[in-house]
Inverse folding.
């Protein structure tokens, strides 16, 4: 299990334990984290699981695939540290990961 901290736009935090191999999107939805919608169910065909990865962990992630990069163009206010939660798999190396939730997914 890895610990992941989700931070809402208002600064409130929720720390959840996530089994290795689970996507950030699934971890958020399963633990009632507001702001991660996952409308496509993890098929990388929407951007409603858009999130910002804390800079301390961003470099530990594999590079986003082309399909994810293309889909991020539809996210609201994408940044350099934007990722789609459905495409980020939690590993033990990512324990302590900090994920910021955007103001909106629309």
């Amino acid at each position: 299990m890895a610990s992941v901290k989700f931070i809402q736009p208002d600064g409130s935090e929720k720390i959840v334990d996530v089994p290795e191999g689970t996507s950030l999107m699934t971890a958020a939805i399963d633990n009632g984290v507001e702001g991660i919608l996952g409308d496509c169910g993890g098929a990388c065909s929407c951007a409603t699981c858009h999130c910002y990865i804390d800079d301390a962990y961003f470099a530990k992630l594999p590079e986003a695939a082309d399909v994810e990069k293309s889909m991020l163009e539809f996210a609201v206010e994408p940044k350099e540290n934007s990722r789609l939660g459905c495409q980020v798999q939690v590993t033990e190396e990512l324990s302590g990961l900090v994920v910021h939730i955007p103001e909106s997914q629309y």
Q: What stands out?
A: The mean pLDDT is 96. The domain at 2-100 is CATH 3.10.20.30 (Ubiquitin-like (UB roll)).
